[in-house]
Design a protein that fits this description.
By secondary structure, the chain is an alpha/beta fold. The chain has three domains: 185 residues, Rossmann fold (3-Layer(aba) Sandwich), CATH 3.40.50; 225 residues, Rossmann fold (3-Layer(aba) Sandwich); 100 residues, GMP Synthetase, Chain A, domain 3 (2-Layer Sandwich). The chain is built from 16 helices and 26 strands. Strands 2-1-11-10-12-13-14-15-16 form a nine-stranded mixed sheet, with helices on both faces. A five-stranded parallel sheet has the order 4-3-5-6-7. β8 and β9 form a beta hairpin. The radius of gyration is 24 Å and the shape is globular. The relative contact order is 0.08.
Length: 546
């Protein structure tokens, strides 16, 4: 019996306390089907027992390689229940990425979608993967929905081999095996390892403990408490669950009694109809998703008035998007800033106040920050830009198996460990922080440190532009010249580089205006959607050297 009045020490304790407190309440909504807390709780118990039957023991690492779905949630909590360590990764990773992460983390079990099964098989040739648990995205939906989806070819399906290393998720859920008593996790033990790309060649594993996750999650979910109680929150997940944004701001609601709405992939009509039908109160997304919604042809067919808290992180929200959203729905988009290494939020914009434009909010209670000179680590004066470094009592202090990267990114100052974010920010006298740029993406032009992100933001506010990427081009006279790569909206005709330069001159200091504009059909992005400036920088450097 769980004491629902005591403070949970682990993720599984927090979730199971909610199962016991309100078993009949809806925990998950997926493709129109609802799942109660008791039903998800039983699935979690069965999955943990099945893992034990397959030979998995406490402390083992297991990769979750599936899209947003009830199975993702069940796998994640099931791993916590058996005392394991989850390793969530994006379902768009290839066999090369999977093999690297399996070897780096030491994971021997992969829980994958059937559409990714071929990648897992190829990765097994160079990794110690001992077992594969395979699911189809609709496995837990009612039989008639599965038949309808497959009959009309709406459900992606991959070919799965039947061998002694492959197990079907759906079959495991039908088994009724008992789970022996385990020693149980403690708050300081690792719950999961999230892999982040950052600026290095290979992804870096970030080990996140149970207590750090619960502290950060509660802190971020509490921000919307002035609008509605945490247990009454219904969150539509616009961010993937393998990402810290999707975890701390979406998945975590199941540890605090809320309802989580999931979709396997971004489908605007499905998303908007679901908000309308199930009266979602919270929406979480990156700036691109908000732009896509505003520019959707059928946006006016849907009633989104149930939304009370719209949260944006992952990148700087262009002022134009925030303004258009407010004009349409009379609701603000609240911004925040965080990183995988900080387990999400470092700053959050408070609700119920007029937050300054472009601000990413104020510091959350559990975090301490410094804004320092990136070269000397000496504090900079208030209002001046500098690198943001972050510390907390339960913070991550090292990357998994990466001592060299750890030495670069984690430093000791004033008797505390600090994480170097690599982001240039400034703070005003009221305690609001503003993103300026990444340190590695700062352009040095005529002695000035020029923010690539600032120029990109200005270009993206032009009504003809849908995407922009700015880099420094080597130049022996001025250090670097500024070049912008721009993607125009499909229906736009007649816009020239001169028009965009004129637009920049109206909004930027003269030394920040690009010297070159190049139009592209698309911009290079990472597998989690981040702009890859380094690829364009490499192209320009190669041209310069030739």
């Amino acid at each position: 019996m769980i004491n629902v009045n005591s403070k949970p020490q682990t993720i599984i304790e927090a979730f199971e306390s909610r199962v016991e407190k309100h078993p009949d309440k809806t925990a998950i909504i997926f493709l129109g089907t609802t799942f109660s807390y008791s039903r998800i709780g039983e699935y979690v118990r069965r999955f943990a027992a099945a893992l034990y039957e397959l030979g998995v023991r406490e402390g083992e690492k297991m990769i979750i390689y599936i899209p947003n779905s009830p199975q993702w949630v069940i796998a994640w909590f099931g791993i916590q229940k058996i005392g394991g360590i989850a390793v969530p990764i994006t379902p768009i990773y290839t066999s090369y990425d999977l093999q690297y992460i399996a070897n780096d983390s030491g994971a021997e079990t992969v829980i994958c979608a059937d559409t990714n099964y071929g990648y897992v098989q190829r990765a097994m040739a160079g990794a110690n993967i001992r077992r594969i648990i395979v699911t189809n995205v609709v496995d837990l939906l009612p039989w008639w929905k599965r038949i309808f989806g497959k009959a009309f070819d709406k459900v992606p399906k991959g070919k799965v081999s039947r061998d002694n290393k492959t197990y079907l998720f759906e079959k495991l859920m039908r088994q009724s095996v008992s789970l022996p008593q385990t020693t149980g996790s403690r708050g300081e033990r690792i719950a999961e390892i999230l892999y982040t790309g950052g600026t290095t060649k290979f992804p870096k594993g970030v080990p996140i403990a149970h207590d750090l996750f619960l502290e950060s999650a509660e802190e971020q979910l509490n921000v919307s408490m002035p609008l509605f109680p945490m247990e009454e929150n219904t969150i539509l997940a616009g961010a993937p669950l393998f990402h810290i944004l999707g975890q701390a701001c979406e998945l975590a609601t199941l540890c605090f009694g809320g309802t989580l709405i999931l979709q396997p992939k971004v489908n605007l009509d499905g998303m908007l109809e679901t908000i309308q039908r199930f009266k979602a109160k919270t929406f979480v997304g990156v700036p691109t998703l908000y732009r896509m919604i505003l520019e959707h042809d059928r946006i006016d067919f849907y009633d989104l008035q149930s939304l009370q808290y719209c949260f944006c992180a992952g990148d700087v929200l262009p002022v134009e998007i925030g303004t258009r959203w407010f004009e349409k729905y009379k609701k603000a988009i609240y911004q925040g800033y965080g990183a995988t290494e900080t387990c999400g939020g470092v700053t959050m914009c408070p609700v119920g106040v007029d937050n300054p434009p472009r601000s990413m909010g104020c510091i959350v209670p559990s975090k301490k920050i410094k804004i320092v000179n990136p070269d000397t680590l000496a504090p900079v004066p208030l209002g001046e830009p500098g690198e943001l470094i972050v510390s907390s009592e339960r913070m991550v202090t090292a990357y998994w198996n990466k001592p060299e990267e750890t030495a670069v990114s984690f430093v000791e100052l004033d008797g505390r460990k600090w994480y170097r974010t690599g982001d240039i920010v400034s703070m005003d006298e009221k305690g609001y922080l503003y993103f300026v740029d990444r340190t590695v993406d700062t352009i040095k032009h005529k002695g000035y440190r020029v923010s690539a992100s600032e120029i990109e933001s200005v270009l993206q506010e032009h009504p003809a532009v849908i995407g922009a990427c700015v880099v420094g081009v080597p130049d022996q006279d001025v250090g670097e010249r500024i070049k912008a790569f721009v993607v125009l909206k499909e229906d736009i005709k007649g816009i020239t580089g001169y028009d965009l330069l004129k637009w920049c001159r109206q909004k930027l200091a003269s030394y920040k205006v690009p010297q070159y504009i190049e139009f592209r059909d698309m911009l290079p992005k990472s597998k989690v959607g981040k702009l890859l400036r380094r690829e364009l920088r490499a192209e320009e450097r190669k041209r310069y050297e030739e």
